[in-house]
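User: Reviewer 2 asked us to show a designed sequence for the structure in our supplementary figure. I'm pasting the structure tokens here. Could you produce the per-position amino acids so we can include them in the response letter?
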């Protein structure tokens, strides 16, 4: 198949729409459902991300994409009981490494992952399909599917769930093109490999990192390679815990990603783990309720007449002081940036969310100030020399 007609483009008024190959066949097959224009943008970006994550770490990888940026991405490390709890994993599912990767990718930012497009580095197995079955999702791309997984996924969305199979051996042309306002842009495909070679130039007093920190930094950089710029990514234990995408200001990226990382950590607090929800509450409503409860807008779900809609028992207020004290317990976070940090305020913000190691291209006229702030906190920072803008 060299061409695939689509219902419409980014918006319903943008017709006609299609994807096609100028030479050769499309590297993907539609197994079920009908993909849309944005679905395919998410699918092809997501597939590249998980493919590179597996190459860099040797572990199965998954990502949860929304609007051409990852809401979460992770490799298949085992889940603690706390993570199983906050990711709402049923105890009767025996998690495979790939299922662990998807649980982490989906669980990083459940609000943003609602209605995601999933990419998997490996053949989708039954355990992973069972996790996907319970979530609101638009579709999935993977190099293959087990018979049991395919049966489960085909039943989603009344049989209309979009299932794509990618040719894992496909290599794109060296030159890529796109049009904007009738003008054709052309550039070389971004084939850069992110590996140990880009983690050699540590410019801070602390120059030592562990194998796990090395993996976390590479994971952050690979995620940034496929995230709309400007972007900053916080990673812990093999998964993104906060991604700040598409911001014009670098500090806004850092704050956004840090705020998401804080929310991920707050969901593991005793206050949140102890919440007692009303019976039958929908997953999306539960996620939204937790998101509000751990914010300064907690009265929206705790006011009289409101809390009864969500909770079987009214919880105590999770005060700002309590939240700040809990966030301070988060440590061993890796932070990546797709371009240089222009000011030390980025490091100050990352430090408040547990940053211990940082990777960024370097090259700011204020590099000395950024290094100085890292040294103040004992953070190890590497200048990769590699910018990772993606548009």
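Assistant: Here is a per-position design you can include in the supplement:
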């Amino acid at each position: 198949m060299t061409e695939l007609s689509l219902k419409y483009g980014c918006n319903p008024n943008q017709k006609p729409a299609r994807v096609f190959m100028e030479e050769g066949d499309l590297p993907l097959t539609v197994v079920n459902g009908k993909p849309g224009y944005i679905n395919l943008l998410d699918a092809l970006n997501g597939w590249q991300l998980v493919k590179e994550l597996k190459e860099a770490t040797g572990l199965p990888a998954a990502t949860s994409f929304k609007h051409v940026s990852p809401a979460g991405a992770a490799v298949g490390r085992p889940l603690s009981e706390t993570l199983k709890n906050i990711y709402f994993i049923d105890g009767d599912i025996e998690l495979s490494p790939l299922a662990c990767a998807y649980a982490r990718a989906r669980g990083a930012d459940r609000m943003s992952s609602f209605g995601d497009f999933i990419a998997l580095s490996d053949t989708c197995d039954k355990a992973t399909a069972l996790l996907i079955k319970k979530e609101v999702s638009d579709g999935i791309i993977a190099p293959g599917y087990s018979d049991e997984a395919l049966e489960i996924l085909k039943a989603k969305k009344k049989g209309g769930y979009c299932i794509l199979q990618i040719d894992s051996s496909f290599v794109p042309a060296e030159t890529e093109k796109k049009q904007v306002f009738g003008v054709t842009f052309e550039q070389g495909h971004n084939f850069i490999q992110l590996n140990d070679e880009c983690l050699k130039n540590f410019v801070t007093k602390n120059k030592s990192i562990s194998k796990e920190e090395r993996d976390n930094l590479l994971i952050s950089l690979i995620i940034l390679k496929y995230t709309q710029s400007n972007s900053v990514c916080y990673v812990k234990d093999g998964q993104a815990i906060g991604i700040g995408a598409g911001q014009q200001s670098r500090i806004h990226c850092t704050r956004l990603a840090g705020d998401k990382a804080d929310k991920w950590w707050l969901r593991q607090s005793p206050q949140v783990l102890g919440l007692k929800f009303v019976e039958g509450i929908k997953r999306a409503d539960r996620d939204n309720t937790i998101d509000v409860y751990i914010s300064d807008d907690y009265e929206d779900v705790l006011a009289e007449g409101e809390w009864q809609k969500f909770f079987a028992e009214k919880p105590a207020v999770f005060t700002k002081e309590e939240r700040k004290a809990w966030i301070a317990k988060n440590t061993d976070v890796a932070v990546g940036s797709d371009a240089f940090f222009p000011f030390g305020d980025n490091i100050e913000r990352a430090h408040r969310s547990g940053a211990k190691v940082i990777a960024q291209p370097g090259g700011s006229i204020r590099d000395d100030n950024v290094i100085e702030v890292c040294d103040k906190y004992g953070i190890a920072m590497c200048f990769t020399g590699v910018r990772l803008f993606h548009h």
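For the response letter, you might also mention the following. The radius of gyration is 21 Å. The longest strand covers residues 69-75.
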